[in-house]
Amino acid sequence: MIEISIPNPDITITERKQNLKDDEPQIEPIYGFIDFHLIPRDKGGIFLFYNRDDELLFVGKARKLRQRIKNILMTMFLRLKCTETKYIESIFV
Prior knowledge:
This is GIY-YIG catalytic domain-containing protein. By secondary structure, the protein is an alpha+beta fold. The protein has one helix spanning about 65-80, and strands spanning about 10-15, 45-50, 55-60, 85-90. A hairpin with a 4-residue loop joins strand 2 and strand 3. It is globular and about 55 Å long.
């Protein structure tokens, strides 16, 4: 049997709603994710999509993580009208 170890993620973003505080500006969610700005625009690496049951749904790689993850989320939403993705982990290379 092949054993595969997944390195610890540099960033994990979770589907959630924003809890507004006094002077905090409202963040427009991108397909339910409001922490998308944490993923750097110019970093490459791998990313993993998980569902609510912590089952791995999708693994991908990209030269520009944020752009690629946005494209995948858009494609999934257009095809399915909804997605099971609960959180996304990114590992920079």
